[in-house]
Amino acid sequence: MYEIRSAGPKGLGVFAKSLIPRGTRIFSERPLLSLRPDQSSSDIYTVSRLLPPKHRASLLSLSSHITSELRFLRWNQALWYTLKALLKNFPYLLPRYCHFEPQRPGAFSTRNSLREHVDVLSIFRSNSFNVNSEGIYQAVFEGISRINHACVPNSQGNWSEGSGRFNVHATRDIAKDEEVSLSYLSDFAALREARVEKLRSGYGFDCGCPACDLGSESGRIGEEKRVGVRTLLGNYAESVKGGGDIDPNRELDTMMQFIKMLEGEAITGREVASMYLEVAELNEGLGRREEALRCAERAEEIDRACLGTDHEGYETTRKFVDRLRGETGKTYEL
Ligand SMILES: C[S@@+](CC[C@H](N)C(=O)[O-])C[C@H]1O[C@@H](n2cnc3c(N)ncnc32)[C@H](O)[C@@H]1O
């Protein structure tokens, strides 16, 4: 379905070998390396050393594109952790008033090289995805971590708690030879300047995707829509700041305009499905059952495409739709 090959200045990338229809599960992977919510970057190197050799080799083969400024920071970080490990293992080096628990004998080895530590930190930073599940906070994957970024991507990754896998689905048809892309950013309404800054500081590249090309008509129009939506959201936030009654009609209208902007930009992932679900609930609260059902059905259709029918999130949406169908007396259509 796909191949991993050169994507020019981006390094490697994932490309469709044939048409990948919307809703196709392109990847389903368990993490190569992951951090739990209670772990921090100081644990990355330690966790990486516990990997089986094959997985460790896969990890070390991933790209790490970082700026010299970031490299400097990583060296400082690695130096500090290495020093801490050294002191834990050789406590007699410590001044008498410092008390570290010594680690198990042999846990610290001279192979615990500073350079490798820097590399692992850089690789983790360049390739990890926020999973935000109960057991895993961030994770790196063997194939998925080869997917490059686009501000308007053609696929989306979602963690499945039930299967313990990160699944990447096509959120629109991906043509043969087209590059598969994901968004590394969480704010889909972010303006170009903010996106550029995040991608440059977080991943060390300048995004040249069509949405960032403000010289093109589509890039410019997309940006204008984002400005419009941000103004709308800002005005709405201002209107509810005083803590007065929230006008559900205004809330509905604001959300629908946000959804329209995202769909107009061909952004149809989980976030849009969640917004449709909220709009459905608002409509239900206002007694507009038919409208609620219409929005919930759209959410179900999007969730089916970007999560798959075996995903627990899809199941919740489907049950909600079923309930509304029962209440509106609509016959079940597949
Ligand atoms: C998760 S990796 C993606 C796979 C990577 N290209 C490789 O060769 O393994 C992230 C890195 O890929 C590069 N990259 C991703 N998206 C890019 C884009 N739109 N433009 C330029 N470089 C990009 C950056 O160097 C970034 O740090």
From TrEMBL:
Gene3D superfamilies: SET domain (2.170.270.10), Tetratricopeptide repeat domain (1.25.40.10). SUPFAM superfamilies: SET domain (SSF82199). Transmembrane segments: none annotated. It comes from the Eukaryota. Residues 1-185 form the SET domain. SMART domains: SET (SM00317). PANTHER family: SET DOMAIN-CONTAINING PROTEIN 5. This is SET domain-containing protein. It comes from Phialocephala subalpina.
